[in-house]
């Protein structure tokens, strides 16, 4: 498996979070929508999701790219992970899922 390529933060105040992350990253977002603000810093996607808490995210969540989302989810559940967000289409042909390890740490998966 490759390394995590995306880090998504759930936020409750998108404009305030955008100000902080724009300052922190020293860059304007490449995507600036009411449902997602995304930055690309040296190939690393860093995003703000105002719906993240409702999706079960409890903090910054790294996302790993996978070839087969359902098979990876099943393997991780078999190893003791818990599904927090079922595989969901998020647009552009991309699907994501979120699981938690036995300590509650978030594990994001993305396909496409």
Brief overview:
The protein has helices spanning 14-25, 69-78; strands spanning 6-10, 31-33, 36-41, 44-49, 61-65, 82-91, 94-100, 106-111. It is an alpha+beta fold.
Description:
The protein is α+β, with helices and mostly antiparallel strands and 112 residues long. It contains 2 helices and 8 strands. An 8-stranded mixed β-sheet has the order 2-3-4-1-5-8-7-6, with helices on one face. Strand 6 and strand 7 (94-100) form a beta hairpin. It is globular, with a radius of gyration of 14 Å. The model has no long low-confidence stretch (mean pLDDT 94).
Task: Give the helix/strand layout.
Layout: E1 6-10, H1 14-25, E2 31-33, E3 36-41, E4 44-49, E5 61-65, H2 69-78, E6 82-91, E7 94-100, E8 106-111
Parallel strand pairs: 1-4, 5-8
Antiparallel strand pairs: 1-5, 2-3, 3-4, 6-7, 7-8
What attributes characterize this protein structure?
112 residues; alpha+beta; 8-stranded mixed sheet; 2 helices; globular
